[in-house]
Amino acid sequence: MLYLCIEKKRIIIVAICLALTALAGTTAVRALAAPKKDFIRWVDFTPTTAALAAALDQDIASHKAPADLPADQPPPRPVSWVDLLACLGARYGGDFSHYKESHLRDTAKALSQGKTPEEILGKGPDQYYDYYRKAYGAVLGNLIGEYLVEEPDPQDPEKLIQTAGYGLTAFCPIARGYGYSHYDDFGAGRSYGYRRKHLGNDLMAPVGTPVVAVEGGIVEAAGWNQYGGWRVGIRSRDGQRYWYYAHLRRGHPFAAGITEGAEVEAGQVIGYVGMTGYSTTPDTNGMSAPHLHFGLQLIFDESQKEGSDEIWVDVYHLVNLLERRRSTVVPGEEKGEYQRKYQLVPLE
Question: What is the pLDDT of residue 35?
């Protein structure tokens, strides 16, 4: 009788093991059959200020019709600065310490003549072009284009006129007329809370300095974070960029109307430089000096928005480039408030 009970238990255990094995096999088959998402998981953005500026100039110049072009000759093709930088990125293996302006000029000329990146790069580097095109396009894609801008009338400075242009539609995060200093501190060590790398660029400026939106988009975060203090996070309209502005002013961190879900435009005042953060207690000045922590996160898939798969890129050289366009601000209706003086409207 005891033998039969033991055998029955063995049979039951074997049956359970077989069932679990079959279930695991089915799960494994399903996992293998499920399509794997194909998206970029890492970006090291290294174009220098000189390379960014030269590529931008080539792009802008190529969109202007040559004045002395013969009537029977087709104009050169416009050159995208993203295509141009992607070609150089593929050529250098992403290391812009090899950058030479002659490389950029030759590549721009070839692109304007209709040559493809494959023809320009030849065998080898061309296989990486698509990666750099997507990666650099995520950083720079919507920061240049046609726009309408308000400007003082040269004949009557009190009157505003609207003119069309082509060029940068993005702004420096610090308003015009306000000084700041910075250096390339991306990747430096930080220890508050836990050991980690600094994933942004610190712009040292006095408390109350107006901070403006680099690009238009939707406010996804506006509140307190123990690391960033009072901070604003703005998602670009194409969903690929998340601009992060942290350590805003104690007591009055945000500009009027800056709340989660609000829409903002490039050049709009969104907050004020401060030194909050490094504290679990809201509205605490935990930093040693006032500054704006400015960061850019790239998002190729929503799974990268938060967690260990986040992609933050070095914006030091981009900030240098954005010095070309700074937003003029004037006092607002309330004390301590500022608002932009002139509108710039990117054209789709």
Answer: 58
